[in-house]
Amino acid sequence: MTSPEGLDARMLALARQAREASRRTAELSTREKNAWLLRAAERIEQARERVLSANAEDVRAAEAAGVEKPLLGRLALSDGKWRDMIAGLREVAALSDPVGEIVESRVRPNGLRVGRMRIPLGVILIIYEARPNVTVDAAALCVKAGNAVILRGGSESIRANRALGDELRAAAAETGIPEDAVVVVPTTDRAALEPLLRADRLIDLVIPRGGPGLIRKVSETSRIPVIKHDAGVCHVFIDSTADPKMATEIVLDSKIRQMAVCNGLETLLVHRDAARSVMPTVLKALHEKGVEIRGCAKTREIFTEAREASDDDWAAEYLAPILAVRVVDDLDAAIAHVRRFGSDHTEVIVTGDYANAQAWLRRVSSSTVGVNCSTAFADGQRLGLGAEIGISTSKLHAYGPMGLEGLTTLKFVLEGEGQLRE
Amino acid sequence: MTSPEGLDARMLALARQAREASRRTAELSTREKNAWLLRAAERIEQARERVLSANAEDVRAAEAAGVEKPLLGRLALSDGKWRDMIAGLREVAALSDPVGEIVESRVRPNGLRVGRMRIPLGVILIIYEARPNVTVDAAALCVKAGNAVILRGGSESIRANRALGDELRAAAAETGIPEDAVVVVPTTDRAALEPLLRADRLIDLVIPRGGPGLIRKVSETSRIPVIKHDAGVCHVFIDSTADPKMATEIVLDSKIRQMAVCNGLETLLVHRDAARSVMPTVLKALHEKGVEIRGCAKTREIFTEAREASDDDWAAEYLAPILAVRVVDDLDAAIAHVRRFGSDHTEVIVTGDYANAQAWLRRVSSSTVGVNCSTAFADGQRLGLGAEIGISTSKLHAYGPMGLEGLTTLKFVLEGEGQLRE
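^ Those are the sequences you sent over. The predicted structure of the assembly is below.
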C-alpha cells in the first residue's frame, strides 16, 4: 500500500493529533467528560447492528485464518460483553474525576503552602489483544483522567475497533470534546507500532497488554515509559495452621471461579505439616471439579491422582483447569518459591498464625499480597478503584490493579505571599 | 584491557551482586540501615585525607586533560561540600523510614481490609556528573529506602568515587549490611553503561542526571524504566496585578541566589500592562547585579540596556548571569510560551488576581507550579521531603523533587477472614 516512510509519517501524524488533543482534554471539566461518556454509551447502543456486524466479519475472517479458539472467544462480542461495555461507560461517568485533586497540602514553617495536584499524563498508547470491548473501556478511563489515547488492538479485531472508534469520536464531536482524544490506529500493519514507540516527545506512556512476546518487543523498542500488564503466575500458600475449610474454599474460588484470568491460581504451595491433614481435601475438591493436578513427589505420594510436575510447571500461567502443587518445608521455602517462579502478580497465604501472616505481607514483594482471601480480589473494581485499565506488574508508577489514578501524575503546587529562599 | 565481552560479563556480574543484595536490603530494619549511615559518616570522616587526596588527583588529571571550569568546580570536594556530605548521611539516618508504611487502608463492604504498603524498588542505577559527593548522597537515600544502588559517576571523579565507595561498603560490612548494597562501577570505560542499561531483569530503575546528551542516550538505550533529571528552563510570569516590590524580590531570589542550579530562573515573562510600571525596576535591579538581559522588541523599547533575544534564548538553560525577558499579551500567552519553551521544571506567577493564580496552578503542567514565591523552592528539602535524589522532569512515578518516597513503590495488601469473590 504505502511505503514504510509513508506509514511512519501517517503514524506520527496521528500521534501529533493526539498530542494536540491532549492539551484540551487536560482542561475539560468533569461535566464535559461525563457528557461525552454518556453520549458515547447512547451512540454505541444505537450503532449496535453496525458494530456487531463488523465484529461478525472480524470473527469470520479470523476463523478463515484458522486462529485458535481462545482468541475467537475474546474477539466475539457476546451479549454479556456488550452490556458490560455500555454499562462501563456509564460507570466511568459516575467515578469521581481524579484531575485537580489536591493531596498532602501542608503549610511549611515559612508560611508557604505546599500541595500536590493530580494532573493527566498526556497521551497514552494502549496495545492490547483482539478484544474490541477494551477499545471502549480503555478510551473511557484514559479520557476521564484527562488524557488522549491511541488504541492499537489485535489485528483480528480491526473492523469492530474502527466502528467503535467512530462512535466514540462522533460522540466527542457532538459534546465539544476533541475527536482526537480517541485515536484508533487504522491499520493492522505490524510496522505501524515502531514509529509510535519511538515518539517519546508525543506519547507519555505505553501500556502493553498481552502475551510475553508482545511485552518483550515493546519494552525493547520503546523510548517511552512502559507499564507492563504481564502474566499472572499466582500462588496460594496453605500454612500448617490453615483452617481446612477456609483453605479449600479459597483455593476453589481462586482457581475455579474463572480459569482464563490473570489473577487465577496457578501454583498451590502446602506446608509439609498440612500436607496430610489439609491437602487431600483441597485436591480432591479440585479434582472433582475437573482440575488436573501436577504435583511434586510428596504431593503425588499423598494424592495419587496427581501427575508429575516439571520445572516448567512452576513457572506456567496455565489459564486452564490445571494446577501445579508443591509441598514446602516452611514459610521461608514458600517465599523463596514465589520469588523464584512468581510474576509479581498475586500471592495469598492461608494461615491461623499471626506472625506468619505479617511476614507474608511484609516479605512477599508481588503487587498484591493477601492473607486468608481469594486471589480473585486482585481486581480494580473489587479493591475499590472503580474500573481498571489492567493489572501492572511493573513496579514503577502503578503496581497492581491500575485505575483512573494510575493514568494521572502529581505535580507540586506552591501558594505563597512573596516567600523567598534567602 | 579486557575484551568488550569481558566488560559486559563484569558489568552483569556487578548487577547480579546488587540484585542479590537488594533482597536483603529490602528486609533490613530501620535500626540496621541507620547504623550503617552513621558508621559510614564516621568512616568517611576518618578517611578524609585518603578521599581528599584521591579527589585532588582527579582534579589534577582533569586539569591536565583541559576540562572546563564549571566541571572542575563540581569535581572538587570543597570544605563546604565535605561538611554537607557527612551531615547528609546523618540527616538521612534521621528521616523516617518509608519502607513498610501503609497508606489508604480501608475496609471493603465484605470485610476485607485493603491497604497499600510501601516497599523498595529493588536495584537502582544512578548515572551522574563528576560530583563525588553525589556518590554518598545517592547511596544514603537509595539504601535507606531499602534498595541496592549501582553508582556511575562522571569519569573525572573515578578516584574519589572509588575511595568513597570503599568506605560505604566497609561500613556496610561492619554493620551487617550486604556490601553490594552499594556498587561503584569501577571503570571509566564508556562501554560499561550499555550492558547495565539492557539488564532489565537485574535493575529496576535508571536515574540519569546530567546534560541532554547523556539523558537522550540513556532513554534511547535503556530497557529499564528511566526517570530523567533533565534541564530546568524555569519561568516567572509577572502579571498585570503583581506587587512591584514582591515581583522584584522574587525575580532576584529566583535568579541571583544561585546561578548554576536547575531551579534558577531563566526566562522572565511580563504582562504588557506591567511592562512600563513593574518591569523597569525589576530589570534595573538585575542589571545592577551583573545579569545580562536579552529581551524581545518591547522589552528593549522599555529597557534599552537589553540585548536582542533570539528563539534560542527562549529555550536556553543558561545556568549563568543571563536572563531572557519577554513581554506577553496576557495569561494565555504566558502559558502558551511556557508550554512551547519550558522543560516541565518550575514556573511561578506573581499576581494579585485570584482567578489568574488559580488558572496558573491548574493549567501549567510543569512539575512545580507556584504563586507569589521564588522558583528556588523547587527543592526536596524546602518542600519537606527531606533530602532529595534530584528533580524529575519525567511525569511517571515521581514528578518534581524526588525524595525517599520516590525510591519506593506501593503494593496492595489484603487482610481477610476467608473472603471469597463468589
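Chain B has two domains: 4-230+398-414, 234-382. Chain B has a mean pLDDT of 95.

Shout if you want it in another format.
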